[in-house]
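Dear colleague,

Thank you for sharing your sequence with our group. We've completed the structure prediction you requested, and as agreed, I am returning the results in plain text so they can be pasted directly into your records. Please verify that the sequence below matches your submission; if there's any discrepancy, let me know and we will rerun it promptly.
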Amino acid sequence: MRYLDYRVRKDDSPWVGGSSNIKTTVKAFSEGTCVRQRVQGNVLKMYDKAPNVLRVETLLTDISHFKGYRAGKSTKKDAPRYLPLRKGVADLHRQAEICGKINERYVESLATVEETKSVAEVCKGLGERATWKARPHRALNPLAPEDVLLLESVNRGEFMINGFRNRDIRTVLVAGKLDDAETKRQSTRVTRLLTLLRAHSLIARVPRTHRYQVTDKGRTIITALIAARQADTKTLLKAE
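Please find the predicted structure tokens below.
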């Protein structure tokens, strides 16, 4: 839903004009496999063509909720603003731009980086104290349950596109309904934890917003740590 820029409710359930009809089909052909995800007539497709080619494309047939920056038709003096897209060639360039962004978000979420360095090299410095705005911050312990939960929380898939806020992480870390005083205390605690991750360059704040995104460095480190924690002893011994 977020790939196609549709609105999603707070509980992550889809919300498309009151309809939540999402259809995914997977078909295998002699040339490869095709995965199609259809929402409101719009289709996001991924093809596995040849052994080393992955093709992603978007087909927009319902453009009612997409907008473009242009002037209105009421008067020539209308200031440009974001208005619904028009069918035809007038906003074709804007449709191409939207499709490109959808494809980019989809590919980035699927992308994995094959890291040839060891986990020790990738996570070097994580176990040392860091400084943020002239203030020291503690080291991160990838074996401590509290730090593991924090790293897994910011790395969740639903935060891949739009990032996350303080309250998003607070909801993951603290289950159940809290009163006002406890909510404020937990919000302050999460702020300290996010500052800790910023000090280690694992996350960065989106400019002019209260949202954060995991950095490329943070994605590599967190992925390596999660993979190492999930691997059994036999697998780890084979890697020696």
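Summary note from our side: The mean pLDDT is 84.

Kind regards,
the structure core
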